[in-house]
Design a protein that fits this description.
Largest sheet: 6 strands, antiparallel
Structural class: alpha/beta
Shape: rod-shaped
Strand content: 5-15%
Number of helices: 17
Helix content: 55-70%
Distance between the termini: 30 Å
């Protein structure tokens, strides 16, 4: 039930004005221009009207009191409507848990609007949903302002249908349907996004699955690696430990034998080095041998000198013979070259003083011979050549004598050497056994030294093998984990050849390579595959939930469509019954009805059969409303043929019919009776009384008949200051004035 209206700063109501609606019918009267229609517009404003034209303005600023000579302009306009929301039966009129509901709207000069319910700021949508639940729709069918009585007649079929749905209280279904459709659109967008995400994930997931399969193969290889490694490492550890022990023993034994041989050899050698007589004999033999070597060396040099002298002598003899035969004998080029070479050779071989002297003598003689042959006269040259030959002959004799002396000295030295050797041999016979022992000990020492060196080399080799084994363990640990290097030690080596272990090592290396190629442990791949798989499963579940949600929303929309169609059909039938009744009452006969407009056949012909079937239900659902009238004693084919008064009566009949079927909490009639004559005014008054039994009526009127049907009457006046004021008039006085 409407309780009161509070207006402040709205249009001509500069000061706070309160209208209480405590009766079923309230009339608001006043002269033209007093601002009484501003009351209806205040209702429109508070209930969320967005059209400035409907409130006779161009801008939001036009709704705010603009000031006068006695009052400043307001910066804010506010209208509050107060409803009684106490339960009627089991339900409250408004679906909110308050006994009183205050809906307020304020507008500022910058054009912004503020909405509130019971003092709490809300959205316009919240206001609309709350009003729709109380059958107060947004099409304004419950507020009929001056000049808009035939608005429903002039509206398009689709707009007329919206008004009818609003009057029938179907707006909540529309709100629910719109909300469901929005959710469905959002859900379908989410489905598209989820499908897009799954499409993006699919190739990466396939790649990861292939990688995981490789890793599974790697697991098999890893198990094989662990088995091979445990066997190989256990045997290799035992083998190296055995070899270390073995080599250490061999080295120790060899070192002991070496020390013994070295000590015995050292003692014998010390004793042998103290043999002075043997040393003396040996020293004499060595000195004699060196002397023989010296004599032989000097004889060799002397023999070469003799050979050269003999050659020079032969050459000199030959030259003297040629000179005797032929003065100035020509010397061939080859002889000159040979002479130069001989001189060079003499110089090079002149190592001892005698040899140098002999060489210089030969060179001088050669040069002298050369000069005599080319420069000296024949007799002189011949004499010179003969002197040269004589000198060379003498020199040859001297050299041969010297060689004879060297030969004698050599014989004496050889004789001494023989005697020294015999003495040394005689002495050696006494110490041969000692020397043999020294030789045996030396050989034994060398052998043991070799054995020790061999053992050390083997130790080094075993150390290298141990280091390599530790590296292999580290590599295998990185591929196979702790299990690969966790094994029991062997108490003894298996009875097999060494090449069997070598074969195990090769197999281990091959398995390591295959495992590395297969991706190693791949924990990061497994983790990523797990995360991506979980993401895919989550998206699949989410997609399934969204699909169920979308199906549920479609089912809800279909149910709402069914409910809308059902309630609309039932409401249309009820409105038609009341409309025909009120129409006949207003016109004294005739009839009127609402009907769904028909589809144009051309549209069906242009569409294929399947498309018609697909779109037909939706088209039927949203078909507009046509109005058919049948005036008594007058044939009318269209509403446009009605006069202004006839349209007003038809509109009033239709509005009252819609209000009868689903009565709104209140109905505002703003001078809708202005065009009625006296007889129709009485009928109008009768309908007002009938409607007042179902809805509160607020009648803004000049009509006396309408005033007489009101229980409460407000008068609105405006003075010279342009401010509307509310006057209280007693009902009895108002009736007297009206009559």
């Amino acid at each position: 039930m409407l309780k009161r209206l509070e207006v402040v700063g709205f249009k001509s109501f500069a000061k706070k004005t309160v209208l209480d609606f405590l009766s079923s019918t309230t009339a608001i009267v006043g002269p033209n221009g007093s601002g009484k229609s501003n009351v209806a517009e205040a209702f429109r404003f508070a209930l969320g009207e967005q059209s400035m034209k409907s409130m006779r303005g161009k801008r939001a600023e036009d709704l705010i009191f603009n000031g006068s000579h006695s009052a400043p302009r307001a910066n804010r306009a506010a209208v509050a409507i107060v409803f009684d929301n106490r339960p009627k039966g089991t339900h409250r009129p408004f679906k909110i848990d308050f006994d009183e509901v205050v809906i307020e709207r304020a507008v500022l000069r910058d054009g912004t609007s503020e909405y509130s319910i019971n003092g709490s700021k809300v959205r316009l949508r919240d206001i609309e949903e709350l009003l729709a639940g109380a059958n107060i729709g947004e099409t304004g069918h419950h507020i009929i302002s001056q000049g808009e009585a035939d608005r429903i007649l002039l509206a398009s079929p689709r707009d007329r249908r919206a008004m009818l749905e609003d009057a029938l209280g179907l707006k909540m279904y529309e709100f629910k349907k719109q909300e469901a459709e929005k959710k469905l659109v959002k859900t379908e967008e989410n489905i598209g996004q989820v499908n897009s995400l799954r499409r993006e994930l699919a190739p990466h997931l396939r790649f990861l699955e292939s990688q995981v399969k490789k890793l599974e193969r790697a697991d098999s290889l890893r198990a094989e690696l662990v088995s091979l490694a445990q066997t190989y490492f256990a045997i290799e550890d035992a083998y190296l430990a055995h070899e270390k022990t073995k080599v250490a023993g061999e080295k120790r034994d060899a070192a002991e034998r070496l020390a013994q041989a070295a000590a015995e050899l050292s003692a014998i050698e010390e004793r042998s080095t103290t043999d002075a007589e043997g040393v003396k004999h040996l020293d004499l033999v060595r000195r004699t041998e060196r002397e023989i070597e010296r004599i032989n060396g000097e004889r060799g040099l002397l023999a070469r000198t003799i050979g050269r002298v003999e050659g020079a002598l032969a050459a000199a003899t030959e030259r003297s013979t040629r000179v005797a035969r032929e003065p100035y004998t020509k010397i061939p080029r080859e002889d000159l070259i040979e002479l130069a070479r001989e001189i060079e050779k003499q110089v090079e071989e002149a190592k001892t003083p005698d040899a140098v002297a002999a060489a210089l003598s030969a060179i001088r003689k050669a040069i002298t011979a050369f000069v005599n042959r080319f420069i000296a006269p024949t007799d002189d040259l011949l004499a010179e050549e003969e002197r040269t030959a004589y000198a060379l002959h003498n020199e040859q004799a001297e050299l041969l004598a010297k060689d004879a002396r060297f030969s004698e000295e050599l014989e004496r030295t050889k004789s001494l050497l023989a005697r020294s050797r015999e003495a040394l041999t005689a002495h050696d016979e006494t110490g041969r056994e000692l020397r043999r022992r020294i030789l045996d000990l030396a050989q034994a020492k060398a052998h043991e030294e070799g054995a020790v060196a061999k053992s050390e080399a083997r130790e080094y080799e075993i150390n290298l093998l141990s280091e390599a084994l530790e590296r292999e363990k580290g590599e295998v640990f990185g591929l196979g984990g702790v299990a690969a290097v966790s094994y029991s030690s062997l108490e003894q080596l298996p009875d097999e050849e060494r090449h069997a272990q070598d074969a195990r090592k090769r197999a281990l290396e091959r398995t390591k390579i295959r495992l590395e190629e297969a991706g190693g442990t791949g924990e990061d791949i497994r983790q990523e595959h797990k995360e991506v798989s979980e993401r895919e499963a989550f998206l699949a579940t989410e997609l399934e939930d969204l699909a169920k949600s979308a199906a549920g929303l479609r089912a809800l929309i279909n149910d709402l469509d069914t409910e809308l169609a059902k309630h609309f059909s039932e409401g249309l039938a009820k409105v038609n019954a009341s409309f025909s009744e009120y129409f006949a009452l207003m016109f004294g006969g005739g009839g009127a009805r609402l009907a769904l407009e028909e589809n144009e056949e051309s549209e069906e012909e242009e569409l294929g059969e399947s498309e018609v079937e697909l779109d037909e239900p939706k088209e039927k659902e949203r078909l507009g409303i046509e109005i058919a009238v049948n005036l008594p004693k007058k044939k009318v084919r269209s509403l446009m043929q009605l006069s202004g008064g006839e349209r007003a009566l038809t509109s009033i009949a239709l509005i009252f019919a819609m209000s009868q079927v689903n009565p709104p909490p209140f109905l505002i009639l703003d001078e809708t009776d202005a065009a009625l004559d006296e007889a129709n005014s009485r009928r109008y008054g009768d309908m007002i009384e009938s409607l007042a039994k179902r809805s509160q009526l607020i009648v803004i009127t000049h009509n006396r008949e309408s005033m007489s049907r009101a229980n409460t009457l407000y008068g609105v006046t405006m003075g010279g200051d342009g401010i509307s004021k509310l006057l209280s008039v007693k009902f009895d006085e108002a009736v007297a004035v009206a009559k």
